[in-house]
Amino acid sequence: xxxxxLLDRVDSPNAVAADExxxxxxxxxxxxxxxxxxxxxxxxxxxxxxxxDRAFGDDPAIVAGPATLDGVPVMVVGHQKxxxxxxxxxxxxxxxxxxxxxxxxxVMRLADKLGMPxxxxxxxxxxxxxxxxxxxxxxxxxxSSIKLMTGLQVPIVVVILGEGGSxxxxxxGVGDVVLSLENAVYSVISPEGxxxxxxxxxxxxxxxxxxxxxxxxxxxxxxxxxAIVAEPGEGAHTDHPxxxxxxxSAIVSAMxxxxxxxxxxxxxxxxxxxxxxxxxxxxxAGSTGRPELPSLRRRIGRILHLPGVPRRPRxxxxxxxxxxxxxxxxxx
Amino acid sequence: xxxxxxxxxxxxxxxxxxxxxxxxxxxxNKQLERNQRLCPSCGHHFRMSVGERIDLxxxxxxxxERDAGLESxxxxxxxxxxxxxxRLEASRIKTGLRDAVVWGIGTIDGQRVAIGIFDFRxxxxxxxxxxxxxxxxxxxxxxxxxxxxxxxxxxxGARMQEGxxxxxxxxxxxxxxxxxxxxxxxFIAVLTDPTTGGVLASFASLGDVIVAEPxxxxxFAGARVASDTVGExxxxxxxxxEFLLAHGFVDAIVPRSELRSSLSxxxxxxxxxxxxxxxxxxxxxPWGPIGAISGLAERLGGAVSETIGIDVEAQSDGNGKTPSVxxxxxx
Lengths: 332, 331
Known about the structure:
The structure holds two protein chains of two kinds. Chain A is built from 14 helices and eight strands. Chain A is of the alpha/beta class. Chain A has two domains: 13-275, Alpha-Beta Complex (2-enoyl-CoA Hydratase, Chain A, domain 1); 288-322, no CATH class. In chain A, helix 1 packs across helix 9, helix 2 crosses helix 11 and helix 4 (98-114) packs parallel to helix 6. The radius of gyration of chain A is 24 Å and the shape is globular. Chain B has helices spanning 29-34, 50-57, 84-95, 129-145, 163-183, 197-200, 223-230, 241-246, 256-269, 289-300, 303-318; strands at residues 17-19, 26-28, 64-66, 70-72, 101-108, 111-118, 149-155, 187-196, 209-212, 218-219, 252-253. Mean pLDDT of chain B is 83; it is low at 4-12 and 280-331. The radius of gyration of chain B is 22 Å and the shape is globular. Chain B has three domains: 14-46, no CATH class; 47-269, Alpha-Beta Complex (2-enoyl-CoA Hydratase, Chain A, domain 1), CATH 3.90.226.10; 273-331, no CATH class. Classes of the chains: A alpha/beta, B alpha/beta. Chains A and B meet through helix 5, helix 6, helix 7, helix 8 and helix 10 of A and helix 1, helix 2, strand 4, helix 4 and helix 5 of B. Strand 8 (280-282) of chain A pairs antiparallel with strand 4 of chain B, so a sheet runs across the interface.
């Protein structure tokens, strides 16, 4: 992470990818893009909003409650961004505090209790950072939401509407089927955050957006998203009803697919799906440096300090600290 | 293939001493190595390598590394000012490790545990696919062998170079914990400096017991990200182990010199529940008063267990379950 000059990307193929990724990020953040509460009445009937986490307060950045989908009772949970300055302040720009995730947990537990399928809508730049959120356990709230969702005994369909921002999105984003709107994005950190850490400049956000491969197509390629729902015209913001109807048929067909499996099958498949996430190589190689288990003679010899029996190295000799080189690398 | 010859000592260490960031004392590195990497004048806890952690926490020669052959790949073709592959290689050379976590089976005062340990020096201890996979396997082995799981974290969070695949490691490491709950296997999280971001927002916050080292930086969002977003400076110490203790998110702050003995005590108190024959994975376990007594009896062992065990079996048959009353020996 040096301050080496960045490559001149003009005319490079990367520039094209960066433009396309950035275009998608802009569409995902479009002020007229349909939000959860714009779509819910168009997709479901009789939504009844439930509020409060029963412990601290109510977080308007997350909305949740029961509704029916073609007559079937379901539970709806989603991030909620505002549409103008005033509503954005109320909704904290869709960035939940811990009580938002705890409200979601409480409502999803109710769905579990009553055997109602859950549909979640992801649209957040990320969980809110800041002293109040830390104080009330932002990380714990996200972690326990993820844990709850991996074990719920009802089908869960996740829909990424706009921005799928890191842990704050995943906290209500663990499911059996993950759908994404065409121009939605999903990432481990915002492009600005990634750029400011790895490129040391927020101005490199578009480069970071391309590097993180955050578009819906990329997510399908990575196995994180199962299917893309096409958006009307120039994007979802141009036609909310058409977007809702496309989403509705995708959700209904996902539900139909899931309704065939019994609970244990559902949970086993969900586990396998999460368990299979990631890319790595597995070689047959053993431990990095530790020698094979010594013979009995050696083991006794070591205990009795017999001559000619070398001492087994300690792990700290194999992997010592390099005191002079404590680099502060960062993650997300 | 060993990446670094195991017995090689650095011929000439680049620095013979380190400055303590807290009290500014000049500390000889040799002295740090001998003193559990604690500052001799102010007690500051310097970060430890995974090797030093193993020696600190586990019985000598008890640790057996598992899945050492897992290696990260660059699935995204990620390139900032350096390709991800180059960063990985540099970290491998620097640390002699293949990735940021080593996991294996070892004993603490003779008590068998599945333990995963982070090394912050490997790309900031960031969690990518390999780290997630190793921890998931650590938990799954704890489940299969019915032994407690411990993870010692030191991480900046998710590894950005793996994009959403690293985000998915949050779910991958958390999912097995649901099974540990169902099977009655304890999980102890040990948070060391630093434990932040996606690692804290997943398994690290979900220990049945969570202990932290003094003054460790523990928090969700980096202070810089937080102040950029909120637009104000963060209060001092709002992401420390002490702050988390005060707000109810960790159970104890344990100085390094007592960490091993504290873990040993906890392991003695929090035993894996006896196996439910063939029903290890399932939310419901017979756990009425008699179940509790039988659990206690199993812990005490011997004849008591046999006498009470019969009652438990009779009762459990009524629930359509036949849990084993065989003594489940944890090691």
